[in-house]
Amino acid sequence: MAILPSFPIVLAAVCSLAVGYFLIKLCKARASFYYNKVKKGYPMPPWNPILGHLLVLNKAFKKYNLTRDMHMDDIFGAISKEFVESDSLFYVDLWPFLNPMVLISSPKYAQQAELVQDRPSDLLWSMHPVTGGPSVFATNGTEWKDTRSLLLPGFKPNYIFNQIIYSIDGAEALDMAFRIIAKGQNLVQLDRFFLEYMMKLADGQHCNAGNLLSQERFEAFTKALRSNMDWHYLGDSISSIVRRTPIIQLINSYNTRIMNRYLSDVMDERYLEWRAGKVSSLSYSNKSTLDLILADYMSKHKDKVPEVLDTAFKNWAIPQLRIMFFVGHDSGTATLSYTFYLLSKNPLALEKMRAEHDEVFGSDVTAVSYLLRTQPNLLNKLTYTTAVIREVLRLFPPASGFRHGKSGAHLIDENTGNHYSVENVNIWILHSALHRNPRYWKDPSEFKPERFLAGPNDPLYPVKGAWRPFEHGPRDCIGQALAMTTLRVTLVMLVRSFDVKPAYEEWDYLHGISLESAPKYEGERAYQAGQSGAHPAEGMPCRISLRQ
Ligand code: HEM
Fold first, then answer.
1. What's the CA gap between 78 and 55, in Å, rounded?
2. From the alpha carbon of 138, which atom of ligand 1 is closest?
3. How far apart are CA 250 and CA 246, in angstroms?
4. ∠ at Cα 395 (393, 397), nearest 5°?
5. Centre of ligand 1 from the C-alpha of residue 445, in Å
6. 76 close to 103: Cβ distance less than 8 angstroms
7. Phi then psi for 305, rounded to 5 degrees?
8. Backbone phi, then psi, for 419, in 5-degree steps?
C-alpha cells in the first residue's frame, strides 16, 4: 500500500519550493543590477546586495521629514536633490516591487526619454484596479498604436469646442452647488467636490452614458471606480504590498463587477441605437470614445452586423472606457483645486484673471454661458488665464511620465559624455521635481504666470523642455487640449462669482492637529498627496463665499 505524505509535509514542500524560487529570482535581480548599474558607478543611493534600495524610501521619510500620504513623485523628488553631479539622474532597485528604474528631473534627459515609446510592464499591473485590463495607457506596440489612432479623432481641437457644452452644463451645476455651500457657510473639501463634477464631464465627453442608463447606476459605477482607486493607492509606497492581500483583491473584484456590468450595458444600449439606425455614421458632433469604438466595430463587421456585441470585443473595449473615465477626471480635478488655491494666495493674479474675463466676456457673468455656447473661440483670447493654468500645472503637476527602455537604449549627458544605460529599465520622468528644478527655473517655488507670457530674453522665459505636465513625444497626453479647454471654461464660469479661501488651519484645528504638528512639504500644507494622480492633502479644505 502506497504511503501518502501528510498535509503538513506537502505544505512544507510547497513553501520550500516557493521560497527557493523567490531566492533564485532575488539573486538574479540583484546580480543583474550589480553588474549593469552598481559596478558601472551609475549614480544611486547606497545599495545593499540583499535589500537593494528597499530601505531607501524609509530613510528618505526620516531624512526629509516626509509625510506618509505624500505622493511618490515628491518622495523621489526629495532624493533627486542629492544627485547634483548627474543633473539629478539616479537609479533605484526596488525588486520585487518594481523593475529597476532610472529617475530623471532635468529637461536634457526628459527630452531623450520622451522619444522612447514603450510603457513599463509594471504599469499594466499597477493600472489594473482602474482599467481591469490592457488599455491605451499601458499597452505597447501595434496594440497601443491602433487604439491611440482609433481614439485620436475624439481629441482634435475643433471637435473639443463641440464638446464644451458638457463643461458649460457642468459648471452651471457647480455654480448652483457653490451658491448653496456659500449660503450654508460650510467647510468643504474642494478636491472631492470637483471630483464629482469632473467625473460627470468625463461621462459626457467619452460615453454619454447618462442618457442611456439611470443616474443611480452611474453613481454606483463612479463609486466603484473611486473605491478601487482609493483602496489600491493607499499612498503608493505601501500599495504594492497591500494590494496583494486577499481582502483588497475581493474589494477589487466586487468593484470591477459593478463597473464592467455597467459599461457592458452602456455599450449594449448604444449598440442598439446604432443598429436601429438612430446613429448612422460618425458626424462631426459625435466622436465620443464609445461611438468611435462602436463605429470601428460596425465597420469591421459590415458584411454581417452581429445582433449583439461579442465578448472579446467587450473585453477589449471596457478597459478603454474605464481609462477614459479615470484620466478624464483625475488630473483635471487636482489642477482645478490647485488653481483656486493659488489664486486665493495670489490676489493680484486673481484680479488680473477676473479683469481678463470682463474684457473678453463683458461684465455680465450671467451672459458667459450663452457666449461660450455660441462663440467658443472666445476661449482663445484668455491668454492670462491660460498662463495661470500653465503655472499651476508647473507647480503642482498631477502626473508624471513613464517609459521603458529597449535593448541598447541610453540616456546621454552631452556635457560629460556619460552614457547611462536604460536597457530593460523603467524611466520615471519626475514632473514635480523637474518643474521646480532651480537649474532650469528662475524663482522655482514662486507663482509667476508671467513666465508663460515672457519673451525669450526674459530670465523668466521657460527653458526648452522644462515644462512638461502632459509629457511630449509619441506617448504624450492625448487629452491635453481637452483638459486645457475644460479648465478654462470652468474658471471663466466661476472665478468672478465666488471667493474660495483655503481653510487648512480650521481643518487641522477641527481634527486636533496643532499648527506646529500639521504635516507640510517644503513649508506647503497643501502638498501633493498620494492617490493615483497627485491631489492636494486632505482634499483641500475650503470656505466658499459669494463675491461681493
Ligand atoms: C490636467 C489634466 C491632465 C494632465 C496633467 C495629464 C497628464 C498626462 C501625462 C503626464 C501622461 C503620461 C504621458 C507619458 O507618460 O509620457 C498622460 C497620458 C494620457 N492621458 Fe492625460 N492628462 C490630463 C488629462 C487627460 C484627459 C482629460 C484625458 C482624456 C480623457 C487624458 C488622456 C490620456 C491618455 C489616454 C494618456 C495615455 C496616452 C498614451 O499612452 O498613448 N488625459 N496624461
1. 15
2. 40
3. 6
4. 45
5. 24
6. yes
7. -70, 120
8. -110, 130
Is residue 121 over pLDDT 70? yes
Q: Could you tell me if residue 53 is left (phi over 0), alpha (psi between -120 and 50 degrees) or otherwise beta?
A: alpha
Beta bridge partners of 428: 103, 402
Sequence-distant (6+) residues with CB within 8 A of 319 are 131, 132, 133, 134, 135
Q: How far apart are CA 80 and CA 73, in angstroms?
A: 10
- Listed by start position, the domains of the chain span 21-113+399-468
C-alpha 339 – ligand 1 centre gap (Å): 19
For residues 449 and 441, what is the distance between their CA atoms, to the nearest angstrom?
13
3-state secondary structure 433-461: HHHCCCCCCCCCCCCCHHHHCCCCCCCCC
Residue 136 CA to ligand 1 center (angstroms) comes to 10
Pocket lined around ligand 1, Cβ cut-off 6 Å = 136-137, 148, 324, 327-328, 331-332, 335, 398-402, 469-471, 475-479, 482-483
* Residue-level pLDDT at 237: 47
**Which of 403, 451, 430, 531 has its CA nearest to residue 122?**
403
Per-residue pLDDT, 235: 44
pTM of the full predicted structure?
Answer: 0.94
CA of 276 to the centre of ligand 1 (A): 34
List C-alpha distances in Å: 184 to 171, 177, 188: 20, 11, 11
**Nearest to residue 493, comparing CAs of 200, 166, 188?**
166
> With contact defined as beta carbons under 8 Å apart, do 60 and 405 qualify?
no
State the Cα–Cα distance between residues 432 and 79, nearest whole angstrom. Answer: 13
Cα 35 to Cα 102: distance, rounded to the nearest angstrom: 16
**What is the interface pTM, i.e. ipTM, of the complex?**
0.99
Q: Which three cell numbers stand for residue 412?
A: 546621454
Q: Please state, in angstroms and rounded to a whole number, the distance separating the CA atoms of residues 460 and 387.
A: 13
- d(CA 429, CA 426) in angstroms, rounded, equals 10
Q: Is 477 labelled as part of a ligand binding site?
A: yes
Residue of minimum CA distance from atom 36 in ligand 1: 477
Query: What's the gap in Å between 327 CA and the centre of ligand 1?
Result: 6
Q: Provide the percentage of residues in the chain whose pLDDT is more than 70.
A: 95
Give CA–CA dist 177/546, Å, rounded: 12
218-258 residue pLDDT tens: 999 999 998 888 776 544 545 556 666 788 888 889 999 99
Mean pLDDT of 344-353: 98
Q: What is the pLDDT of residues 249-307, one digit of tens each?
A: 888 899 999 999 999 999 999 999 888 877 766 665 678 899 999 999 988 988 888 89
Ligand 1 pocket: which of 109, 115, 477, 480 to mutate (most atoms within 8 A of CB): 477
